[in-house]
Design brief:
Blueprint (H helix, E strand, L loop, with lengths): L1 H18 L9 E2 L2 E2 L11 E7 L3 E7 L5 E7 L5 E8 L5 E5 L2 E5 L3 E6 L2 E7 L2 E3 L33
Antiparallel strand pairs: 1-2, 3-4, 3-11, 4-5, 5-6, 6-7, 7-8, 8-9, 9-10
Organism: Mycobacterium branderi
Protein name: Protein kinase
Keywords: Signal
């Protein structure tokens, strides 16, 4: 009897687990950025860089006229920011909004006010014309930040 119950519990657990989406799946992306996300470039703009951190997704788009645009979204609450950006010679992209500076590099997304870094988020995944195309979506483990995230900055709420 005990063996039968154990088998039933194991079978039900397997069915339940198979029917649940993975919370650790990498976000789906293609050459324009993240699918179904604010962090995506739309035609005729082209993605020149995009990446994600544990808490954010960002795409840098280039217009046919040569201007850059920062398109970022905070995963936790969907706060979005779409603002003009510039490119520096060393591969950095910089966007500013309400006194807050967002700096995107292949290794991180840094958020600062003046010379004070508010937070620096390491890139989990980054794509640019110099990096290979993204692989098919796979499951990767994620970690929860040890400390709770700060509330959204005024510049991160609402947005274009």
């Amino acid at each position: 009897m005990y063996t039968t119950r154990l088998a039933v519990v194991a079978a039900c657990s397997a069915l339940l687990a198979a029917g649940m989406p993975s919370a650790t799946a990498a976000p789906t992306s293609d050459g324009q950025g993240f699918v179904d996300s604010v962090a995506r470039c739309t035609a005729p703009d082209m993605a020149v860089a995009f990446g994600d951190t544990e808490t954010s997704r960002v795409a840098i788009c280039k217009t046919p006229g040569g201007q850059y645009e920062y398109r970022g979204v905070r995963v936790r609450d969907g706060a979005k920011l779409i603002v003009p950006a510039t490119q520096s010679g060393d591969g950095k992209f910089v966007a500013e909004n309400d006194g807050i500076t967002y700096t995107v590099t292949a290794s991180s997304l840094a958020v600062s006010a003046g010379n004070q870094v508010i937070r620096e988020e390491p890139m989990v995944d980054f794509h640019s014309p110099q990096t290979p195309p993204p692989p098919a979506a796979t499951s990767t483990p994620t970690t929860t930040p040890a400390a709770p995230l700060p509330p959204p900055l005024p510049a991160e709420e609402g947005g274009g």
